C-alpha cells in the first residue's frame, strides 16, 4: 500500500481529538435541547415516560456519535461461515418435537405492528389491509392463535407492539375480538425525535410538535419497550418463558411446535429463523461467525468492495426472516444489566417545512442484531413457506391468488404447485391498493406461473389464467385490456391492445 493510501485511511491523534471535541459539543447541545423538550411537558404522568424516552434516545445518539467517530466497522477477513451448531437445518430437528404440545403454556406470540400502510397507499395501520377472503393481517394472526388454543386447549396470548402511528387505531380494532378465544395485549414502542442532519439537533421544538418530527426507532426497540411497558414482567408472572416475534405482514410466521420444543430442549436463549436466499433476497441480512460469536451481518455493514460478494447466494446462502424466538428471562437480564447494544442504522429521510424539504436522520436498531448477546443463540434454516411477507401489491396479488388456500387463518400452498413461488413485478400503476384493485378487479389464476411483469395502464378481465413467463408492457398514454377468460402462456404483449368480446 502506498504512503498516500495509508494517510488516507489512518486517523491522526489530532483528528481524533478534533472529532471527540466536536462530538462532545454535539452531545451537549442535544442534551440541552432534549431537556427543553422535557420541560415542555405539563402533565406529570406523561412527563415521567417522556423523560425516560428522551434519556434512551440520548444514549442512542451518544453511541451513534462515538461509532461515527471511531469508524466502527467489521473486519471482513474475520467473517466466517457459521458452524453446524450456529446454524441448524429445520429438517434435522426431531419430528417428534412437532407432536409435543406441553410447552405451549410457556409461549407468547408478539407481532410487530408499528408500520403504516402508506407505501401501499393506505391510511392507518398496515395490519388492517385486507389480504385474503375479507381477512386483514390482524384477522389472520388472531384466527391462527385462536385455532391453536382451541386445538390444544391452550391459552397462548397475542401481544402487539404498536407505534404512536398505529396505537389508537389498533386499540379500536382489537375490541372486535373480545369474544374470541384469545387474550390480546398491546403496548407502544418508543417515540424518538428526528434529528436535523446539518446541525444534529432534534427536529421538534416541543413535546406536542407535529407527528413527522418524531419516529418509532425500529424493532430493536422491542426489548426496552417491552420492559418499560410492564409487559415483560406480566409475561414472567404468567409463566411465559418464550416469545415468538415476527413482522405483522409475514403471513408465513405461524407458531411452530418443532422450533418451540427445540429451543427448550437446547436451552437456547435466542433462535433466528433463516431461509434460503433467492435472487430477490440478495440484500437480506445473514448470520456469520465473528470472533467466535454468532452475529447478524446486514448489507449496510458490508464494505463497498465486498457488497457483490455479500450478494452472492452461493457464499451467503440464507437470510434473516425476522421470525425470532427469544427467552423472556434473558431479555429481562440483559435489559437490567444494560448489556443490549445493537448496531445503529442511520436512516436518512426528508420532511417538509415552510414549503422546503429538510434532510433529517432517524437512528434505528433491529432486534435481529441482538442475537450476539444471548446464550446458545443460533439460526434454524426453515422452509420458504415460513417467509411470506406482503410489502407491495405484487406480493398482494400472490397471496390473494389460487396459489394458496386459507386454513384456520394460515395460508397454505396448493399441493399441485411445482417449484418456488412465482416472481411478480407490477409497475407504478399498481403501487397503491386502489390502483391495484381498479386494474386487477379479479385475481387471475397463477398456479402454473413462473414470472409475471406488468407495466403501464393494463387491465385484467375475469377468469384470466397466466402460465409460464408473461410480460405485458403498455406504452405510455395507451391502454391494454386483457379480455375475460384469456389464457396467457409464455407471451410478451406490448404497445396498445383493446380486445372487445363478441
From TrEMBL:
PANTHER family (alphabetical): PTHR43511
The UniProt keyword set, sorted, is:
Nucleotidyltransferase, Transferase
Q: What does this protein do?
A: Plays a central role as a glucosyl donor in cellular metabolic pathways.
Q: Which reaction does it catalyse?
A: alpha-D-glucose 1-phosphate + UTP + H(+) = UDP-alpha-D-glucose + diphosphate
* EC number(s) recorded for this UniProt protein: 2.7.7.9
Tell me the protein's name.
UTP--glucose-1-phosphate uridylyltransferase
What is any one GO biological process for this UniProt entry? trehalose biosynthetic process
Ranked from the top, the taxonomy reads: Eukaryota, Fungi, Dikarya, Ascomycota, Saccharomycotina
* Family designation: Belongs to the UDPGP type 1 family.
UniProt binding sites for UTP: 126, 189, 218, 249, 391
Q: Where does substrate bind?
A: 219
The UniProt gene name for this protein comes to UGP1
According to its UniProt record, this protein's enzyme class is transferase
The species is Kluyveromyces marxianus (strain DMKU3-1042 / BCC 29191 / NBRC 104275)
Q: Provide the GO MF annotations for this entry.
A: UTP:glucose-1-phosphate uridylyltransferase activity
